[in-house]
Amino acid sequence: MDFQLKDPNTIAPWKCADKKACCIAIDNSTVVHDRDSLLSRLREVLNHEIEKGDTYPYETPLSWEEAEEYFLKYCTVICLEWDGQGPLPNLQSPINWKEKLLGFFIIKPNYPSRCSHICNGGFMVVPETRGRGIGGILAHAFLYFGPRIGYKSSVFNLVFATNAASYKLWDRLGFTRTGVIRNAGRLRGQSKLVDAYIYQYEFPPLDQEAQVEDAS
């Protein structure tokens, strides 16, 4: 059975008009005005979360080169502020990323070769935009982009038991909690090792998931 990922640049943006946001997929080939400014903002937000030390497994902030590989080797979906009616943001025009970027997530294969049709995602809400439902927007956008890129299902390897906002979201969206990794994380602010949950979601055929595309 052949498997090939599609170019994320060919996938239409995902719109969430009632939240005044849209999500656009990019990779290393995407033409972005002042791409370094975008990458700098993505790296800044992710490294802030890494330094907090309570949701991501990394201990050391990403270098510039590591950030380029992390965000652009496969696909990153950026969530941008949008008025809900007018034209979508044009990535080839100047954008104030500090003001317009609401959140983002990466999509990449979770396993190599014969299992590469199963993807993994890493999600981040910009700290200044928390409390606006951006996490839910990112989750629904993931369900939109994942199967369109060509993935058949998704596995999240480490959803820490202390991250209630995350696991409650995946539970609500129908992800299956397939396992528990005991004592998985040495997280900042915790006096003992923290368990992590494994989640899986099988993407439905595209002709059966129109409701996901419209969800918010």
Topology, element by element:
Blueprint: E1 14-16, E2 21-26, H1 35-52, H2 64-72, E3 75-81, H3 97-100, E4 101-109, E5 118-125, H4 134-149, E6 153-160, H5 164-172, E7 176-185, E8 194-202, H6 210-214
Parallel strand pairs: 5-6
Antiparallel strand pairs: 1-2, 2-3, 3-4, 4-5, 6-8, 7-8
Helix pairs in contact: 1-2
Task: Jot down its keywords.
GNAT_dom, globular, Acyl_CoA_acyltransferase, 8 strands, Aminopeptidase, Mito_N-acetyltransferase, L-azetidine-2-carboxylic acid acetyltransferase, azetidine-2-carboxylic acid acetyltransferase activity, eight-stranded mixed beta sheet, 6 helices, 216 residues, alpha+beta, 28% helix
